[in-house]
Amino acid sequence: MGLVDDWHTVYEFWFPPGLDAADVQTHWRMLEWWMRGGANAELPRFAPVVEAARGGQLAEWAGVPRGRLSLILVLDQFPRGLFPGSPDAYASDTQALQIAEEGFPAGHYDALTSPWEKFFFVLPLAHAEGPDHLRRMKLALALGEKLAAEAPPHLQPI
Fold first, then answer.
1. 126 contacts 136 by C-beta, under 8 angstroms
2. For 57, phi and psi rounded to 5 degrees?
3. Which letter does DSSP use for residue 106 in this model?
4. Alpha helices for 36-64 (secondary structure H)
5. CA-CA distance, 152 to 69, in Å (whole number)?
């Protein structure tokens, strides 16, 4: 199975095996890797996946919760690292938003077990601009507060 055909490759790249059981320092390092460009050097190999997702060729990934999350990552997070400072970094925000919003009634958000999974599932609500941005920001904030309250005690400070 090729890189484009398998959402597991994306998922395991973004959420390394063993992360849930890792100590708090590892979680801090992952947060920095995700949010401060640490992943960027490794993202070029995923450029064909981003293009396939933008072209609608990976829609079947959305059939399962972690597949949907992987598609969200490819459309929301990966372009930010692949194309920093250019309009292309945000070109698939609307697609990521639609996929995330469709995942809530499908039960995919609730099916995720890790606080980080849920965090990245919700990010498109804040990233995509549009007339309903304020409503989505309020929802993202409410979900974030709930997520923080329910996170394992050692992760709550993060």
1. yes
2. -80, -5
3. T
4. 47-54
5. 21
